[in-house]
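Try this one yourself first.
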């Protein structure tokens, strides 16, 4: 069974930065894409960003709410993905989940595309 292990997160003031990391517990695991979702209290889980690998190239996709502030990066060989979050806002407060997809489709913001999930790491942005 593949486990995604997240690290990072914590408490930061508005305007600050945080970084998240995620790695798969099994190196033989081959993912097509890895990314991040988040879930704020009382809200549904929502897409944040994803990196898709295709051969030696990669492409990234972002939710409109984080474009220009968050940057996703990753290492396909290590099955690892990172999220650099800058200019954080109180509305970014949520539990952030790492996710991995074995198969790719255009519906990258749909949580059902992803087969594996991390336990989540909490990000709190104070105003």
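Now uncover the answer:
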């Amino acid at each position: 069974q593949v486990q995604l292990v997240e690290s990072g997160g914590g408490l930061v003031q508005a305007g600050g930065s945080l970084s998240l990391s995620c790695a798969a517990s099994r190196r033989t695991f081959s993912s097509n894409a890895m990314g991040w979702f988040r879930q704020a209290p009382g809200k549904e889980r929502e897409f944040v960003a994803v990196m898709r690998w295709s051969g030696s190239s990669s492409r990234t996709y972002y939710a409109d709410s984080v474009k220009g502030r968050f940057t996703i990066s990753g290492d396909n060989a290590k099955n690892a993905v990172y999220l650099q979050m800058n200019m954080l806002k109180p509305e970014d407060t949520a539990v952030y989940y790492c996710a991995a997809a074995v198969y790719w489709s255009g519906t990258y913001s749909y949580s059902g595309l992803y087969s594996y999930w991390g336990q989540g790491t909490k990000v709190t942005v104070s105003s």
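Discussion: The chain has a mean pLDDT of 93. The chain has no helices and eleven strands.
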